[in-house]
Amino acid sequence: MKKPETTDEFHNVMLAFKNNDPNKNGLKDEIAISGAIKTGGSSEPEYFLLNSFTYVDYNHFLYVNNGKIEFVANTPEYREGLIYVRKLYLDGLLDPASFTQDLAQLTQLGTSDPEILGSFAALHPAMAIDISDRERSSHYDYLVNPKGPKGIQYAVYAGMDGYYDSISVAITDKCKYPEIAMRAIDYMYTEEMQMNSIGPEGLKWEWVDDPNLLDMYGNKARYRYLTTYVSDALRTDVITDEFPLSLSATLWGREVADVKGDIFDPANYGVRLAKATQAYVPYFPKEVIVPYKFDQATSEELAIKKVSIVNYVQQATTRFITGDMSIENDWDSYLKALENLNVKRYLEIYQQGYNDLKELEGK
What we know:
By secondary structure, the chain is mainly α. Helices cover 38% and strands 6% of the residues. A hairpin with a 2-residue loop joins strand 2 (62-65) and strand 3 (68-71). The longest helix is centred in the last third of the chain and has 27 residues, at 296-322.
């Protein structure tokens, strides 16, 4: 089957995964689509699919529309998206375990024998499958967000600058050597330190300076991998969950794009990811929410409101999809609850942060 391009086609492909016995073992043991929680939204398939109806940023539920900050989780479009995902759930296509299992459990599904996982939501394939298994890895490819019934088709983009700006460090008055501490903090932002998230230089990677070695963008490459990429769930050389930074925009995708064999060879994983990323670029929003700077009182107020509003929307989204809340009967009370949580003030704070940033950029 070809990759689905619309939400209707996606539904049909998921039905085929569930009913047509693609692993040919004579059993209907396939899981059409699954995911995992506690991954910042990247492995929660419902949010991938909701972006076919409106732009949905799992961490804010906000959208920048021509300079105006808008809340999306109380709109008719969001409700329409919930109805679509609810149908997938009712048809047995969306794995109920997606709402409770962690990434390790998703990886168990992705590496099971026989192969049962039709599709999954993830930031990259190695979150659910062992990409060192070239045959299994070749069964999975990226999918651009399908186009919704009204032509909506977004891909979520956090923004590199926003990611790095969101990292905060404090040096207290108990520190005997604040200058040294500051030097250590500065070092965390260097490219050398970022590259350590891959592993030790000379063992996992090396810098290159050869105009004949190109990255996947066709530019002069900056480094090359020296070993085959290892799936996140199987790594023992680097504690990735504890590492403070990942690769910035100046390093991501800048490795030597020397494809030996086919793109699904584990040695080509970095190139595979970089090429897949480029497919999503046309569907990124024009602007994204970044960590705007506020005074202490406003920051504290925003932190409380953001936690209460975002957590409530995430919980209600799950409940609407699973049927614990009725989209038909409980939508108005859901909107009232959001109003009581003061979404209006939540928007005002972000709008002020956005306006202040634009003012600074204009100076």
